[in-house]
Amino acid sequence: MTTETSQTLDRGLRVLKLLAETDHGLTVTELSRRLGVNRTVVYRLIATLEQHALVRRDAGGRARVGIGVLGLGRQVHPLVRDAALPALRSLAEELGATAHLTVVDGTDALAIAVVEPTWTDYHVAYRTGFRHPLERGAAGRAILTRRCKDIDNEDGFVATHGELEAGASGAAAPLPAECGVEGSVGVVMLSETVPPEVGPRVVKAAREVADALR
């Protein structure tokens, strides 16, 4: 900590990060141990975060991330979208396919930015706000492989066919973990298979988006 930073704010943010990393919540004692501070400090932090709906406590006293975090997340989407658009435009124009940026929203994959190519006679229609289960489609599967640190292709992308739309193929690469956004960049096209040049290109685009978000 430096003189320019707030120790209380730092601890509050660490509480949120710890709670976001668990599905079952944490007790005050567990948070106290992980933060290295006494329980009284943790109680005050949780009480303050509860007032802003950023933390909630269940009947058993375990603290969890609160619904207020969703409101903050919605405000972040436009910023992420705007940062990603140049890379998506380049991707769509180069491949003649619909490019998209997809992020996690609960158990779904949610498209928050879509760019269609301008020069093709036809392409797959894909809209901002389109959502689907993480387990289906290249965009969601790419995100899951990053979670498992197990990209099923040594080139770092996932390709699928017909999982979301009959006759359509998709390829997507997860955003690098260090960019702070859990998501993927991909394309969808009307074809039976994904051409070999597409996979490496979506990997490059994912890196470009991550760089724009830093």
TrEMBL record:
GO biological process terms, semicolon-separated: negative regulation of DNA-templated transcription
**How is this protein named in the record?**
HTH domain-containing protein
As given in the record, the signal peptide range reads none
Q: What is the lineage of its organism?
A: Bacteria, Bacillati, Actinomycetota, Actinomycetes, Kitasatosporales
| CDD domains (alphabetical) | HTH_ARSR
Residue ranges constituting the HTH iclR-type domain according to the UniProt record? 6-67
Ranges for domain IclR-ED: 68-214
Q: SMART domains from the xrefs?
A: HTH_ICLR (SM00346)
In this record, what's one Pfam family?
HTH_IclR
Give the record's keywords alphabetically: DNA-binding, Transcription, Transcription regulation
Molecular-function GO terms, alphabetical: DNA binding; DNA-binding transcription factor activity
Q: Which InterPro entries match?
A: ArsR-like_HTH, GAF-like_dom_sf, HTH_MetabolicPath_Reg, Tscrpt_reg_IclR_C, Tscrpt_reg_IclR_N, WH-like_DNA-bd_sf, WH_DNA-bd_sf
Q: Which domain of life is it from?
A: Bacteria
